[in-house]
Amino acid sequence: MEQHFFSRRKILRRTNTLDLHPEKLLGSEPRDNGCLNLLLPRFKNKLSSKLLQPAWKDKFIRIKLDAFGSAVWNLMDGNANAGDICEKLTERFPEKLTGKDEIEERVGKFLSLLYQQRFITFRELGKEQEEHGKQK
């Protein structure tokens, strides 16, 4: 059972963004320049995919990430929280980012955007849903 928007938002408001553990919901593929494409399926339903998907069209919409976005995506393994990802990015991009606050802000905005588009979820949402299901 999927959580409803307001219950997810309530959980996320109670939690510090840097403590959240992002988990990928999409696949990815490397590009020639070392960056990544996210693979968004054109259709989620297999039946509609078979009926509506032309044979000559690709089954995925490719979303191009820049070097920073690709690095964040690669660091999301389900075990690292957003704070850990920020620390690793500080080491990886010392010349591009001026300070810890800027990195935390960019990562927070990027993760928020990915979450809003349903490209990622957060492990804490799954735990909260399990706990909520046990209380019923």
Provide a descriptive summary of the structure in words.
With 136 residues, the protein is an alpha+beta fold. The protein has a domain at 5-25 and 66-135. It has six helices and five strands. It has helices at residues 5-14, 46-52, 67-75, 82-92, 100-116, 123-135, and strands spanning 22-24, 27-30, 36-41, 60-64, 120-122. Strands 2-3-4 form a three-stranded antiparallel beta sheet, covered by helices on one side. Strands 1-5 form a two-stranded antiparallel sheet. Strand 2 (27-30) and strand 3 (36-41) form a beta hairpin. Helix 4 packs across helix 5. It is flat and about 50 Å long. The two termini are 13 Å apart. The relative contact order is 0.20.
